[in-house]
Amino acid sequence: MTALTHLTMASALDGLAKKEFTAVELAEAHVRAVESARPFNIFITETPDAALSMAKASDERRAKGEAGPMDGLPIAVKDLFCTKGIATTAGSKILDGFTPEYESTVTSQLWRDGAVLLGKVNLDEFAMGSATITAHQGETVSPWSPGQPGQWDRKIVAGGSSGGSAAAVAARVALGATGTDTGGSIRQPAGYTGTVGIKPTYGRCSRWGIVAYASSLDQAGPMTRTVEDAAIMLRSMCGFDPKDSTSVDLPVPDFRAALTGDIRGLRVGIPKEYRVEGLSAEIDALWTQGIEWLKDAGAVPVEISLPHTKYALAAYYIIAPAEASSNLARYDGVRYGLRVEGGSLAEMYENTRGAGFGKEVRRRILVGTYVLSAGYYDAYYNKARQVRTRIKWDFDEAFKSCDVILTPTAPSTPFAIGEKMDDPVQMYLNDVFTVPINLAGLPGLSVPAGLGADGLPLGLQLIGRPFDEETLLRVGQVVEKAANVTALPNFMA
Amino acid sequence: MSLDKATVAKIAHLARIKVPDGELESLAGELSQILTFVEQLNEVDTTDVPPMTSVAAQKLRRRVDAVTDGGCTPQVLSNGPETAEGFYVVPKVIE
Could you tell me if B15 lies within 8 Å of chain A, comparing CB atoms? Predict the structure, then answer.
């Protein structure tokens, strides 16, 4: 039998149903895996006691015939989701000591469906980053890094900002993990770790109880080892929530039922503007291979144009910091977290925020404050929102001639910690293929599709019409099966 | 766009973030780099293009104007760094 930590969610559910093992046994195996992966700094807070008691309750439900769709499956939760009674830090010193009195809607739905919490995992501070290196609690190392844990030859990044989630899933520490994606923070780390990540359509998953970064772009989604598992977990995470004013009141489909493998006649858009300067030859080749795989399965590739692609990053780096500067105003040393005293109220605010925010967060708050300040609002913020409209129009136009779009997930294989760190703009370029999808509010999926010459994973991204995650997952599974990536990370718990 | 130290200090004050004097210079450089990068947006013709306010194609829902929660002062205050008698405590603001 496969080790319990190497199962997919689908096979674990089968094993639980057939009583091959219990949820407690599954949880115990994963709790040990969490411990053995400590050198990678994946977890901010481990919750072994919660895991075992939730697993025990799961076994009791199953015995009574009341098992939910994810009953007994151990998962990790990005430390951006508020969890009642369990510290939630967003990777920031400013939330030191914060223990939420409430549970985020998405996690409460996962517990409703029987999932088991292993702990809260690392991220870039406030989800602002592409490498999971900016948290107050330190950087996460990818399980793909060559060398012995703790003595790596090269410390490879797990991507970001959901890098702890991606590393947990790749290292066989959790069967799945929640992520959030504001500019690529689910898809890029999935691509970098050889895992599957889907950012659903804006409005599918409730944002209530998730620490806000840029509210018009933030979406939660699952990170798993297979497309089928993503379908299972996505179903539990989605759903209308009156507590989120942008939550969309639509029925949640059985995403797993959409995985028919039949994509005959489907038109796959290939955006010519994604052949950007600096795109590595191996990624270009993988992309071409992806088109061939879909053709072999009966789909029809069509060239499309998304003319404003090159402006997406610039628009994003105005809109996201602007929203962040407003959202992060709440960290003032009064209601939660860190407080650094000062002679006056204003001084206390400034001291607290000066000491509590890391450098990247501070940089983005300052950019946001600047572009929203008197005299610059129109030139920067409004201009960026107009360009955002044009980006959305590009996709509307493209989807008249195609049903789904295929692109690479990231322009290169993952880099090593210490690289790309001097120039913030260079770091931002990691997100060149993922950011436009957030600006347009569309669903996006990253599927492992191969390895680079350096032996590190490469992903392909699929982009769908609003609320058409079903097509996305169906095509994604075709890519997954054709690619049949059998390579495994250097470290597995 | 190039920002000078004084402008960065002003923004930092608006954002209520204390920035040590020694970091203003390098921060000015980083912010200028970002602002120069985003200026490429001026190449895009946005005449008569409405600025996007929400990507979701729906109007904000209305809700019934009713009290649905409350009576949880201890929970609200439980994370406050300093609280007393049902309130948050802050430094004195009235001279």
Answer: yes
